[in-house]
Amino acid sequence: MYNLHESQGRVQINMIAVTIGDDLCVIISGGDKPHIGCVTLSAPRPSLSDPDKQSATTSVLNLLGHKDDEPAKFVSHELSSHLGKNVVVTCGIHLDNITVEEIKNVMKIITKLTNLLIAKVMENQI
Prior knowledge:
Elements: E1 2-8, E2 11-20, E3 23-31, E4 38-46, E5 54-62, H1 69-83, E6 87-94, H2 100-125
Parallel strand pairs: 3-6
Antiparallel strand pairs: 1-2, 2-3, 4-5, 4-6
Helix pairs in contact: 1-2
């Protein structure tokens, strides 16, 4: 299990990842009211533009009125593409009166945690 956390000002993001056999399940939460806003599933496959590269196909289930699909899809797709694993992500981040700058910070933190998780999983596969 991997338990990662990062914060910047009011933006606090938690990322927990659990291996299930060869697959990976990730829970992303944060803000004032963590919840389930979106669930994604990514499966690795050869890139459509270059079969020598790996990509992923990602499916998204988003709850009405939630905007957690952007970070969830990003994390799911990146992990599956880089690790060659089936990946499920559930994401729910809510910050009361979030600003445009804080939304940008959410994606910066999500990107940083995703890259850190990729490195940790790859390190443990060796």
